[in-house]
Amino acid sequence: MKVEDILRTKGARVVTVGADERIAEAAKLLMRERIGAIVVCDPQQRPRALLSERDIVHGLSTHGAEVLRMPIDALMHVDVVTCGLQDSLLKVMAMMTDRRVRHLPVTDKDGRLCGIVSVGDAVKGRMEEIEAEASALRDYIATA
Known about the structure:
Blueprint: H1 3-10, E1 16-17, H2 23-33, E2 37-41, E3 47-52, H3 53-63, E4 83-84, H4 89-99, E5 103-107, E6 113-118, H5 119-143
Parallel strand pairs: 1-2, 4-5
Antiparallel strand pairs: 2-3, 5-6
Helix pairs in contact: 4-5
């Protein structure tokens, strides 16, 4: 299974924000959209950073309620890791594990954002692969 297969099933919609927006607005977006991270893009729709719920919690513990008035670029992770549409599910899972991230923006060949894959998406995709393999084996055994 490839990233493009996951996006075909879940859709390619991604919630994005600008780096100059306030943390309070990002928190509202996260809650309203029921998501764990927002991609911060440049004007060409290239991922610049990620802002996650965890980043906001860390900001609250460091800065208190003042963090809600701060711009997103004060907390965002600029070391954003991306994957491509042709990357395999196993490669994506390895990247998430190695980098200890829960979300990977998906970029096209020009580096523009075209989706996002979460650890939940990866687990669901892997479970579908395993079930398909088990079903094929059961069918093979039944006809042998």
